[in-house]
């Protein structure tokens, strides 16, 4: 990114005002210099920055001083954000001087969304005219001590938002009373660290081995399911990964049960509000899985019994489920993405090309939704 900026400046493609706005962003250079912790490279963060800056200075052929290039590198690292597609799949890195002015909150009222090359800011709830617009720099599902731990070495401030000072996560106490009564805090933090360790190990193995590791991580929390909330870090992300890998290894029914568990019992807590973009995308992912499941059931020689698995016992009217989820997504798209967004295009494409033939029968969505909720509660922990 630094090389691109230097080359664009050299070619006259960055105006003086754009150049000034870039250097008006925070760089935290002095704080980075004082940080002596080693990175994965075995060097300090400042030493990494020096090496990157030297390379950028050399390969761009820039006339600017190395000191200035170092300040550019720090600004890029501190202010850049992850660029995604409409379904939050990572595409690359984005730097916007306008977006960089937004401050952090662990209870943000806004979120950044990409639609192609366009970046927009969307509200997550009603915002009064006097309120500051905020986004989250870190995973807001992590407990307050973890959020602060991540913010300090990257952005060099200790968060004093309402959620951190009150020790809240997703509007709930960091350690709910029932959990605090059942486990000492040291045991809770050790449990969470081990779950996260297994989740990270699972990133670099085969799908079958990944499922085994994620099962181990899940079982850490299942052991305390009567007191450990489903929405508490890091259980939701472990469940999400397990759902996806179950699908990859051909265990579609189990995969969908985990996705349903999130849809009913986790997403409404973590992503409150009917038009939260992440919640809509997760409903979209569930719908894609259900489309595929029904397609396999339709093509199956046994009428779909094996593919439907444990869900068969709930006598679900799949066409009604499709209609219900489609309506939920279509109701939220204008508010959380926009009718002309890339996500809207992807949803319409899925509905046109991926929707199965009319499998099942059209009945009441509310009744079928209750069946799905019951299945999610009973079939997986």
Structure explained in plain terms:
The protein is mainly α. It is 56% helix and 8% strand. The chain has 17 helices and eight strands. The chain has helices at 2-10, 16-23, 29-34, 45-60, 66-79, 144-155, 162-165, 177-182, 185-201, 207-222, 235-248, 252-270, 277-299, 305-308, 318-336, 342-353, 365-379, and strands at 81-84, 90-94, 103-104, 110-115, 118-123, 134-135, 168-169, 172-173. The protein has a two-stranded antiparallel ribbon with strand order 1-2. Helix 15 crosses helix 17. The two termini are 44 Å apart. The model has no long low-confidence stretch (mean pLDDT 89).
Q: How would you describe the shape?
A: globular
Distance between the termini: 44 Å
Number of separate helices: 17
Characterize the main sheet.
Answer: 2 strands, antiparallel
Give the % helix: 55-70%
Return Rg in Å: 24 Å
- Unreliable stretches (pLDDT < 50, length at least 5) are none
H/E series, N to C? HHHHHEEEEEEHHEEHHHHHHHHHH
Number of strands: 8
Strand order of the largest sheet: 1-2
Structural class: mainly alpha
- Oligomeric description of these chains: single chain
Portion of residues in beta strands equals 5-15%
Mean pLDDT: 89
